[in-house]
């Protein structure tokens, strides 16, 4: 039995505030990509989907003179660190298994290059899945952060993933 569903995470005000800031449509696409990649990499699909969905929860606004300052943001961005912490807190509050919360937080921490330790660091399969799931959804000029779905469509896509994950959970008992 999954302790926390994707819908539990989706409806939470913290998710609505921070995931929506960086793009709910992007988060949902990355969650779907992570579900598919989880099979190839033989990692826990529930963890992959949750990490994919929450990977950009650490984004924050970075404006200069009313304009988003991409150059500054890219140089000094720490959204993977903020995201790992926010996601971990949210998951634990929702009652997630502690080990799952830790692995998901680490996958968020290492989803881009910005928080990777120097030299020779190798992502675990789960971390690689989340990294690739994000890369596969990226569009020129960061357009992936600005795509929109209506809320009904968002929820229906979230429920599709929950349905698949619940079914696998019943089959494997994991
Ligand atoms: Fe990101
Ligand atoms: Fe992303």
From TrEMBL:
Superkingdom classification of source: Bacteria
Q: Which InterPro entries match?
A: HD/PDEase_dom, HD_domain, HDIG_dom
Matches recorded under SUPFAM superfamilies: HD-domain/PDEase-like
State which residue ranges cross the membrane: none
Q: Which PROSITE patterns match?
A: HD
Per UniProt, residues of the HD domain are 23-139
Which Gene3D superfamilies does the entry mention? Hypothetical protein af1432 (1.10.3210.10)
> Per its UniProt record, what NCBIfam families does this chain match?
HDIG
The protein in question is named HD domain-containing protein
Organism this protein belongs to: Piscibacillus halophilus
